[in-house]
Design a protein that fits this description.
The complex is a heterodimer. Chain A is α/β, with parallel strands linked by helices. Chain A contains 30 helices and 10 strands. By secondary structure, chain B is α+β, with helices and mostly antiparallel strands. Classes of the chains: A alpha/beta, B alpha+beta. The interface between A and B is large, with 46 and 35 residues.
């Protein structure tokens, strides 16, 4: 394969990296995950000269430590995949900090670099004048300036990238060195590392390893543990470190970072001239923030925006949803009619109507919700509000063992858990993300409401509202308790700090917002959709076989399973096969429970209440509602859990714990209730 | 010197001390001084003689060779430093300090000892060396009577004049970072983002619910929880 096919795009979060990526690749993008983790991976194609090149968008990072999963991914990619060229996007208005990453990449041994000074307009507005030539000469790498959201400089960037791809040899004249004593320490350590290839494949790599060891990088320390020379290396490391720290007067890690920033300070003072009005943009952003994160207004504004998101997702999305639902209902009926007309077998008609068309329909009904949700979220992310929302809510969510950004998925869960779980994409930390995903199905979604309405209406007519409210409340309490439990069980002692940049407010570009929304919607259809569709067909099969039985009757496979499982539900007070079958169908979508009960009792949905009032007592009805609230997320939710956790293990755990917890709570309700009633 | 056993070092030291105090050292005196039997001294002295550290004159007089003298001085110096540290600075009572110094001197590394020497010198270099420096005075009162120092420990001025943790700063206050400590992950992240010593930070705001806080440094804004901000020491301007 031609090595010159891959360019990696790196940069700090909020440097406009995604905008540059979009400007380069347009709509020719593929979104997936980095192997084994939940971090989003994007790549796209761009034509440079007459060569088609893949651009891989690395996660937004500040440096190359192993302390965050994003930085580890970027580091591993650069070291193992060895992209031919790395382009780094920098915020020109804040080179003080943004030059740190290029420096780190040079240390890592990335020899072909292109610096992209993005947001030049903002730098100019701040009165900064950057000597691009000088910077390029000193660092020995090409430097391009852009205003990516206005497509300024993109053509020039493409030309530069194409030119760099043609160059055969790149001499990396790395201009930076540490203070004398540290350099000596690095040398001493390198000496001992040299004869051990896994730790030092090249002279440059040796230096990098030595540096990382001195920094106390866990990953590299672990590698030394596997080396035959472990004892010698570690004792020399301790010695060098102690000597250096005694000489410097404080810890080495700080000293190393300080030396790098010291060098950057020198670069900036040489090549960036400040003049005229300072910090204009910042003050504008500060003014907005004075209101948005204000002591008194901060919370109401956040809640209002949440309400707006909720409305947009479920009301506007719901408007389309009804049409899609009707459309598929119509298509299903017509297909069945067609089979009937050509004298096809009835099972085929049923397969088409309930299985295939119903299956596709149950994937696509969510699409409007998901699209509008991500529209709202993308706008909040692009403007910079998302970080403020997390800032405002973190105190509350942290008390629950979650992150400030977990609030949005939790609230959305009241509407539908599918988009809610997809919304956890905004959480960077995988631990926060997995916990939020695991407890999200406990937020009682709108599909569970019909069940509550049916049962509460039939048996608690006087206190209907209170009963339904108690179920929502129970869900929230369980979510809080389990979030704390899961945190201590699975992620004990792992810190998840809230060190989060609050970027200046920026106007979003529509292209970027729509592209983002579109890609995320597509992920849902492609990945989660497969599982949803497969299960719908499977349930159809179980309800229709053996051939000739009435759909979902006691004689069908699913009816048999219901009859078989009914005794297990007996301690919960509703041990009859109809209840068991209805719960099976509830896996398709929770509201299906109601329809199924209607079919099974042969009443239709109108008179169902009367039958329910006979079959159930208030106590067993409440137990049944608790079960419906907690047990197994619906199949669409399971699909997105699989997709978003990227793990069957977590998916199975989510299904398993909720099934057990739902049954257990229903039993507790019934058994304890019996003592008093 | 490393080749010498602990007891050999003790003999060497005893000979030095006796010859300094009484002008002479005899086998009998050494035995008394160290509380051992004469034959043991004779055996040990033979060993020291074979290494060329001690000369045995008539009538049981022992004398150090120039090399033996240098080595004994070194051992004695170590002993004295540890003794002064224990007795004079920590306030351990004389006999115990003497006995412990004998033990510690054999085990302490030369690096730690070098620091200890510096420390003792430092304390003794205070202008009025007859009296303890203030902080040492407070320490002794604390050690003997459990009396806390006049200012509670974490509010004591450390290093410069007004060093606080960042979480103690009020909205609108600025400070200069002195040190970043705490959890590896946290520290690495903060350092990488440029929160290094010497950087100016300003507390911009506190979230409506009282936590987290917003700070600005190097031209950008950062949110962090109070418990995280506690790990950043700043000097208030």
């Amino acid at each position: 394969m031609d090595k010159k096919q891959v360019i990696a795009l790196a940069g700090n979060p909020n440097s406009g990296k995604t905008t540059v990526f979009n400007a380069l690749t347009g709509t020719r993008q593929k979104v997936g995950n980095w192997p084994g983790v939940t971090v989003e991976r994007k790549e796209g194609k761009v034509l440079l000269g007459n060569r088609e090149v893949t651009v891989v968008d690395l996660p937004g990072i500040y440096g190359l430590t192993a302390s965050s999963i994003d930085e580890r991914i970027a580091r591993d990619f650069l070291l193992t995949e060895r992209p031919f060229l790395v382009a780094i996007v920098l915020d020109s208005s804040n080179l003080d900090r943004h030059l740190y990453l290029p420096l780190q990449l040079m240390e890592l041994g990335v020899s072909r670099l292109v610096l992209i000074l993005n947001m030049m307009d903002e730098a100019r507005a701040k009165g900064l004048e950057i000597d691009v030539e000088g910077l390029s000469r000193t660092l020995g790498v090409p430097v391009v300036t852009t205003v990516a959201n206005k497509r300024v400089g993109i053509e020039e960037l493409k030309k530069t990238l194409a030119r760099e791809l043609e160059k055969e040899h790149q001499t990396s004249g790395f201009p930076f060195s540490y203070p004398e004593p540290i350099e000596k320490g690095i040398e001493r350590l390198s000496e001992i590392l040299k004869p051990h290839p896994p730790l030092s494949s090249s002279p440059h790599n040796t230096r990098w390893t030595a540096l990382k060891l001195l920094e106390g990088d866990e990953e590299y320390l672990a590698r030394v543990q596997n080396s035959p020379a472990k004892e010698r290396i570690l004792s020399l490391l301790t010695m060098v470190k102690e000597d250096l720290e005694a000489e410097l007067g404080y810890d080495l890690e700080t000293a190393l970072v300080e030396a790098r920033y010291g060098y950057i300070k020198g670069l900036v003072s040489e090549f960036v001239k400040r003049k005229g009005s300072l910090e204009q943009r910042l003050s504008m952003s500060d003014k907005i923030d004075k209101v948005v994160t204000n002591r008194f207004l901060g919370l109401p504004i956040f809640l209002f925006l949440m309400w707006l998101t909720f409305k947009l997702t479920f009301s506007v999305g719901g408007f389309f949803l009804d049409y899609i639902d009707a459309l598929f209902g119509f298509l299903g009926e017509k297909a069945a009619l067609l089979v009937h007309l050509v004298h096809g077998p009835p099972w085929l008609a049923s397969l088409l109507q309930n299985g295939i068309i119903g299956g596709v329909g149950s994937v696509l009904v969510f699409l409007p919700n998901i699209f509008f949700l991500f529209l709202a979220i993308s706008i909040m992310e692009e403007t910079g509000y998302m970080a403020r929302g997390a800032f405002v809510m973190d105190r509350l969510m942290h008390a629950m063992g979650l992150h400030g950004k977990s609030f949005i998925p939790m609230v959305l869960g009241f509407g539908c858990n599918v988009p809610a779980i997809m919304a956890t994409r905004t959480l960077e930390n995988p631990k926060d993300r997995i916990i939020t995903i695991l407890v999200n199905p406990l937020m009682s979604c709108s599909a569970r409401l019909p069940i509550y309405v049916l049962f509460a209406g039939a048996l608690f007519s006087a206190h209907q509202g209170t009963v339904i409210f108690s179920l929502y409340f129970l869900g929230v309490v369980l979510a809080i308790l389990l979030a704390r439990l899961f945190k201590t069980l699975f992620f004990k002692g792992e810190p998840a700090p809230l060190i989060m940049e609050l970027p200046p407010y920026r106007l979003p570009t529509w292209k970027s917002v729509l592209l983002n929304t579109w890609q995320r919607s597509l992920i849902f259809v492609k990945k989660a959709g497969t599982i949803i569709f497969a299960t719908v067909v499977l349930i159809w099969f179980l309800a229709s076989m053996p051939l000739g039985v009435e759909y979902a009757s006691q004689q069908s496979i699913i009816g048999g399973m219901g009859t078989f499982l009914a005794p297990i539900l007996k301690p919960a007070g509703f041990g009859f096969w109809q209840a068991a079958v209805a719960l099976f169908f509830g896996i398709l979508a929770k509201e299906v429970v109601v329809g199924t009960l209607g079919t099974l009792y042969g009443t239709g949905e109108e008179k169902l209440g009367t039958v329910i009032a006979h079959q159930f007592t208030p106590l067993t009805a409440y137990a049944f509602m608790v079960m419906s609230l907690v047990y197994i997320p619906c199949i669409a939710t399971i699909g997105v859990i699989r997709r978003e956790t990227n793990s069957w293990k977590w998916t199975a755990f989510s299904v398993g714990y909720s099934l057990f917890l739902g049954w257990f709570l229903a039993v507790v309700v019934y058994q304890v209730g019996r003592l008093f009633l | 010197m490393d080749a010498l056993s602990h007891s050999a070092q003790d003999y060497l030291e005893a000979i030095l001390v006796l010859s300094l105090e009484r002008g002479q050292a005899r086998v009998k005196e050494v035995a008394e001084f160290l509380g051992v039997k004469k034959p043991s001294v004779v055996a040990a002295v033979k060993g020291l003689m074979s290494k060329g550290l001690v000369k045995h004159e008539h009538y049981g007089y022992l004398e150090l060779t120039p090399r033996g003298l240098a080595m004994a001085r070194d051992i004695y110096h170590r002993h004295q430093t540890i003794y002064r540290f224990l007795h004079r600075i920590l306030g351990v009572e004389a006999t115990t300090a003497e006995r412990d110094a004998c033990q510690i001197e054999h085990y302490i590394s030369s690096k730690t000892l070098a620091r200890l020497v510096k420390f003792v010198e430092f304390v003794e270099s205070f202008p009025d060396s007859e009296e303890d420096p203030k902080w040492l005075h407070y320490f002794k009162r604390y050690a003997e009577r459990g009396e806390p120092p006049p200012c509670a420990l974490d509010k004591c001025p450390r290093g410069g004049e007004k060093v606080k943790s960042l979480s103690e700063l009020k909205v609108g206050e600025t400070g200069v970072i002195k040190r970043v400590k705490g959890e590896e992950v946290l520290k690495k992240r903060l350092l990488t983002m440029g929160a290094i010593p010497g950087t100016q930070v300003r507390v911009e705001k506190v979230a409506p619910l009282g936590d987290p806080m917003e700070i600005s440094l190097k031209g950008f804004h950062l949110s962090l929880r109070r418990e995280e901000a506690q790990n950043i020491e700043v000097e208030v301007e």
